[in-house]
């Protein structure tokens, strides 16, 4: 996308002006979406964006700027403006740029840029809509959406790195509203994969509509959730969002390097119950959070974060490695050329255990089964969290009984890790988007069902 001679001239210019390290991140981004509202086509969007991000290191100081131009003089002008903030006398040249051919672990057979298939997508979403509405006359609204992105990136840096990659993203979402009198409740399912439109062959539109509708319906007339400290069983798949938000961010060098994480000095120590094993894995084929290379050009990898309850690893980007001394893990990520990369999660999950789901439930006299988690808020430095439960049930005398509404889980990441006593076998992953200082990136969360012996539950009773 960018002439290598232009890239080398800009990088050499940055080094001449005193930068210790210089990088160009080139991106062409093609995106589009189709949305069906209440059975009718509501939106069809498409767009292309292009830009180049320029990142410079001066010691541990990072300077960043971007432009939409490929012109060498304009790129040098941005570089000069950045270097003016920390100018030094230094004359150096970058290493020779040699294009590396990285393996594509995540092929797409139906890429968005080749065949958009709008009519086919509309038909798919109308099937989702019809099935959701067929569940009950209480279904008042159904929104179906298919979003695709095709991201082409090219990275040059002063070590001589020159590498390219293409990423294909497809996500299908069903959002359902159920109404009973003045009461409303919602259901939501949104699977996603790092693939082209071929992803649709693994998603049953009727099942997608049915799942979202049942989530919405089950909360209509449900009992208010009891409050207080009690045992909770958290369901598989998206239940892993708690680990992602309350613990995962604390294991990124974005926070570790600043000692803003409670885990910054706990490497090698027991930070969780021994039944907990957690990883951040960028290698899973075609998973939503997977990548071939990170946004710094490093090949991705499998990173063990917690092993038998012991902290064994952090997620480390280039600058995070310089600041902490830890080896990079291929975790440098960014939303687009408008952001400098930082350490970010990929597919982050608690690995499956050997506990039976019935055994988790049978040992609880009174507690909550949080079958499906929703959104929440987290305090980054401490991992204090407050998460809504999308679908919840009361556990009484070892049995799952009454559906509940307005359930929330409140604790801290470090505390909840030690309260996990059982991890099940029903491992599953779920797609999501993660926001941080380098923008919003696709990430996967996951776990099997697990038992938390004691956690504060907020509710309406």
In short:
Helix content is 19%, strand content 42%.
Number of helices: 9
Alpha-carbon Rg, integer: 24 Å
Strand content: 35-45%
- Unreliable stretches (pLDDT < 50, length at least 5) are none
The average pLDDT is 95
Give the proportion of residues in helices.
Answer: 10-25%
Category from helices, strands and their pairing: alpha+beta
Shape: globular
Please count the beta strands (DSSP E, at least 2 residues each). Answer: 24
Largest sheet: 8 strands, mixed
Q: End-to-end distance, in Å?
A: 59 Å
Please give a structural write-up.
The structure is a single chain. The strands form four sheets. Strands 1, 2, 3, 4, 5, 6, 7 and 8 form an eight-stranded mixed β-sheet that branches. A six-stranded mixed β-sheet has the order 13-12-11-16-23-22. It has a five-stranded mixed β-barrel with strand order 10-17-18-20-24. α1 runs parallel beside α2 and α3 runs parallel beside α4. It has nine helices and 24 strands. The model has no long low-confidence stretch (mean pLDDT 95). It has helices spanning 4-16, 72-83, 118-134, 205-218, 241-246, 253-256, 318-324, 357-362, 413-419; strands at residues 21-37, 40-58, 61-67, 98-100, 139-157, 161-180, 183-189, 192-193, 223-224, 228-234, 278-281, 302-307, 310-311, 332-333, 342-343, 347-350, 366-379, 384-396, 399-405, 408-412, 420-423, 428-436, 439-447, 450-458. 19% of the residues lie in helices and 42% in strands. With 461 residues, it is of the alpha+beta class.
């Amino acid at each position: 996308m960018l002439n290598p001679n232009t890239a080398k001239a800009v990088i050499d210019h940055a080094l001449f002006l005193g930068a210790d390290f210089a990088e160009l991140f080139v991106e062409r981004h093609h995106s589009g979406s189709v949305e069906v509202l209440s059975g009718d086509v509501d939106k069809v969007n498409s767009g292309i964006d292009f830009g180049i991000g320029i990142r410079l290191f001066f010691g541990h100081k990072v300077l960043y700027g971007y432009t939409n131009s490929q012109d060498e003089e304009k790129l040098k002008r941005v570089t000069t403006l950045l270097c003016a903030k920390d100018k030094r006398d230094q004359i150096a040249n970058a290493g020779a740029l040699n294009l590396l051919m990285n393996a594509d672990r995540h092929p797409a057979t139906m890429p968005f840029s080749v065949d958009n298939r709008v009519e086919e997508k509309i038909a798919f979403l109308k099937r989702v809509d019809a099935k959701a509405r067929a569940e009950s006359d209480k279904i008042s609204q159904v929104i179906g959406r298919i979003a695709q992105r095709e991201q082409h990136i090219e990275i040059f840096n002063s070590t001589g790195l020159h590498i390219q990659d293409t990423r294909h993203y497809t996500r299908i979402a069903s959002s359902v509203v159920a109404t009973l009198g003045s009461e409303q409740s919602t259901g939501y399912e949104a699977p996603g994969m790092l693939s082209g439109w071929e992803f649709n062959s693994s998603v049953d539109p009727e099942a997608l509509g049915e799942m979202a509708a049942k989530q919405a319906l089950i909360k209509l007339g449900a009992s208010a959730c009891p409050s207080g400290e009690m045992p909770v069983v958290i369901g598989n798949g998206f239940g892993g969002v708690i680990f992602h938000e309350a613990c995962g961010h604390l294991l990124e060098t974005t926070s570790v390097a600043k000692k803003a994480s409670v885990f910054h000095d706990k490497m090698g120590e027991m930070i969780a119950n021994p039944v907990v094993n957690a990883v951040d894995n960028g290698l899973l084929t075609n998973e939503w959070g997977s990548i071939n290379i990170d946004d710094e050009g490093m090949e991705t990898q499998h990173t063990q974060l917690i092993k038998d309850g012991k902290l064994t690893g952090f997620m480390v980007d280039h600058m995070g490695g310089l600041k902490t001394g830890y080896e990079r893990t291929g975790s440098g990520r960014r939303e687009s050329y408008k952001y400098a990369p930082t350490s970010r999660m990929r597919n982050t999950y608690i690995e499956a255990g050997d506990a039976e789901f019935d055994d988790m439930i049978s040992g609880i006299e009174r507690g909550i089964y949080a079958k499906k988690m929703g959104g929440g808020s987290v305090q980054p430095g401490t991992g204090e969290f407050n998460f809504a439960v999308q679908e919840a049930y009361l556990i009484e005398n070892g049995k799952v009984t009454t559906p509940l509404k307005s359930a929330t889980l409140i604790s801290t990441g470090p505390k909840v890790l030690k309260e996990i006593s059982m991890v099940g076998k029903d491992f599953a992953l779920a797609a999501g988007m993660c926001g941080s200082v380098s923008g919003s990136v696709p990430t996967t969360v996951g776990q099997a069902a697990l038992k938390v012996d004691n956690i504060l539950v907020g509710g309406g009773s």
